[in-house]
Amino acid sequence: MRPQLSLDDLDEPRGLTRAELMTATEVADLVGVPVSTVREWGRNGTLPRVKLGRHVRFIRSHVVQVILDAEQGGGE
């Protein structure tokens, strides 16, 4: 299981823009998997997520990093 990333893990401290926060639907479209798969990956720690109250968002740079790590490591 991957450790949960936080906003402190971003390369440079700054405010996030709306474009950097993705919904599960946006991540699913990017990766080409069902939304339910993205939600499960978020729950089990495969894909880092940020909970904002009742809402869950994914930080674009974290999603990209997980994809690149999976490509380099041959996936999990």
UniProtKB/TrEMBL annotation:
InterPro entries from the xrefs?
DNA-bd_dom_put_sf, HTH_17, SinI_DNA-bd
Q: Which residues cross the membrane?
A: none
Domain Helix-turn-helix: from-to ranges: 21-65
Tell me one Pfam family matched here: HTH_17
Question: Which protein is depicted?
Answer: Helix-turn-helix domain-containing protein
Q: Which organism is it from?
A: Paraconexibacter antarcticus
